[in-house]
From TrEMBL:
This is ABC transporter permease. It comes from Brachybacterium kimchii. PROSITE patterns: ABC_TM1 (PS50928). Gene3D superfamilies: MetI-like. The chain crosses the membrane at residues 100-128, 149-170, 190-211, 253-274, 294-320.
């Protein structure tokens, strides 16, 4: 319990620091968030001070002392009120994120979990059957596909399976004639549109999990306790999974925590190539449109998700390896 409480205390301190930095960084940048809108207006002629003040009031640019702004910002974070988007005015930032987040969680989150589980199991099998074709096939194949960049793989799949073979849709998260709702037809249509982005993420990330688990597993198989378990006649599957894999999975678990934390940020390149309306696609448009409130909210959400994922991994470490609790 003390171990968990220490981790929770460190999480709370890190979260406060992240929220504070997220507040300070945009205010340390030169200019103000309204400058982008003023610059667009200035293309048609000089902008008066009255017009500038009206634009700042319309966009909700904060005023007052820095301390007053900080307390107001903390209250907004607690209420999940991040203001109005500049690029999608007058849409609230929370509404934009709320619509994009489910697509990213379903696409990137499900693929990340699937790639981790499948890659870990293949890595265990490759290490246990080292020197055979069951080792060579996933290892060489994983090393080969791991060299492919996300955007290159997505363009290949888009061209051959989308434009040439016409097997999958080439953009969007659902058909233009479909209304988003909790129904079987919409779920099937959404999964159909997510097939190519999901396949891209799975292919390009699977090799890393296989190679990482295989290398850690081979090192663990040389430990004395594994040799002792085999000498006592314990079954091969039990030795591989309960003795060797349980200890070998710890480095992979760290990588999984980081990958899981990054799920909320989406995959900007993949979502951009396929026009998939997830968080990555939203973040790209926020940067292009200089949408400061939306960028600030997305950066904070990504930071918090990484911190939560690291907290869960730390707790799992304590359960899998009692030495870490000391």
């Amino acid at each position: 319990m003390r171990y968990v409480l220490n981790k929770l205390g460190l999480f709370a301190l890190t979260l406060w620091a992240a929220v504070t930095l997220n507040f300070l960084l945009p205010r340390l940048m030169p200019g103000s968030p309204a400058d982008a809108a003023i610059a667009r207006l200035a293309q048609n002629g000089p902008v008066s001070e009255e017009t500038r003040a009206a634009v700042e009031a319309q966009l909700g640019v904060p005023d007052g002392s820095l301390l007053a702004q900080y307390w107001a910002y903390l209250g907004q974070v607690v209420r999940l009120d991040f203001g109005v988007s500049y690029a999608f005015y007058p849409e609230p930032v929370s509404g934009l994120i709320g619509r994009a987040l489910p697509y990213t969680l379903i696409l990137v989150g499900a693929v990340t979990v699937l790639a981790f589980v499948l890659g870990t199991l293949l890595g265990v099998m490759a290490a246990w059957k080292r020197g055979t074709w069951m080792d060579a096939l996933p290892t060489v194949g994983g090393s080969f596909i791991n060299t492919f960049p996300y955007f290159w793989t997505s363009l290949l799949l888009l061209f051959f399976l989308g434009y040439i073979a016409h097997l999958f849709p080439t953009s969007g998260a659902y058909s233009a004639t479909t209304t988003p709702q909790l129904s079987g037809s919409f779920v099937v249509d959404a999964l159909y549109h997510a097939a190519l982005p999901a396949l891209t993420l799975l292919v390009t990330s699977l090799g890393g999990w296989i190679i990482g688990m295989r290398n850690a597993m081979i090192n663990t198989l040389g430990e004395d306790y594994v040799t002792f378990a085999e000498a006592n006649g314990i079954g091969g599957r039990t030795v591989a999974l309960r003795y060797a894999a349980r200890n070998a999975i710890l480095p992979n678990l760290t990588g999984f925590g980081m990958a899981l934390g990054g799920v909320v940020g989406g995959s900007i390149l993949v979502e951009q190539v396929f026009g998939y309306p997830g968080i990555g696609f939203l973040l790209f448009n926020a940067v292009i449109g200089q949408d400061y409130p939306l960028m600030q909210a997305l950066f904070l959400m990504i930071t918090v998700s990484v911190l939560v994922a690291n907290l869960l991994v730390d707790i799992l470490y304590g359960a899998l390896d009692p030495r870490t609790r000391r």
